[in-house]
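Handout, section B. The chain below has 262 residues.
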Amino acid sequence: MPAITIGVTDLSFHRVTASLVSHVITDMGFTVNRLYAPHQDNFLALKSGQTDMLASAWLPSSHGIYRADVELVQPLIELGLHYQPYAMWGVPDYIPKHAIAEVSDLLKPDVISKMNKDIQGINSGAGISRFSINMMHEYGLSDAGYQFHTGTEEDCFGAFERAVEHKQWFIVPLWKPQFLHHKFAIREIAEPKGLLGIVDRAVLLLRQDRASLFSGTQLAVLDSLRFSNDIIAQLDYQVCREGKDVDAVTREWLANHFYSEK
């Protein structure tokens, strides 16, 4: 059987989406290998030809710079619309909106006195991390005592869950889709300077020189894949917090919602 290698950005919701895509390609008769790597390394593997495709690219805001670098050497084909992601800063819903409605409210003296000033992010190559580091400067948050930290997924999500448990006031740099939204009410705060980018398209990127591996009908199937922020968040929660196997979760979803509609 022909083999396809999918580059997967090594974050939980990307692993969920790549699992959905992998099942569909496997069902076409291919052997599918998944190569997991951080954001920029994932695109470098696509650029070098180590991978045939990438799941999922957030375009144009978060991953546009990485796509442009790949296309210096190889044109890419967009397939599907896996979901419509966007970056956000949020607070737990027990923090009153009149206290914190937008980012500049974090500079209010009464808010500063209540806030946990450590803002825990994920890895430095993620769009949300790049955007957040810029926001720290643009809003003068560092001067007010706030600190932004990069780290792992669990650094970020664990900090959120512990803070909620203790009803702390804090900021979480997040995005949709993400499994925390499936359980917790996280209120997005306004960022009027537009530093968090726009609503992106999450798509499958295929190297144009590998497109001939697929028939026109198969490419059309890949282009028909449509999920949503809520679907990915729900599946991500089942894997990350209910301990279910990612491939079992996604296979069940496809059986009930994708193949059943064919």
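Note. The radius of gyration is 19 Å. Compare this with the example in section A.
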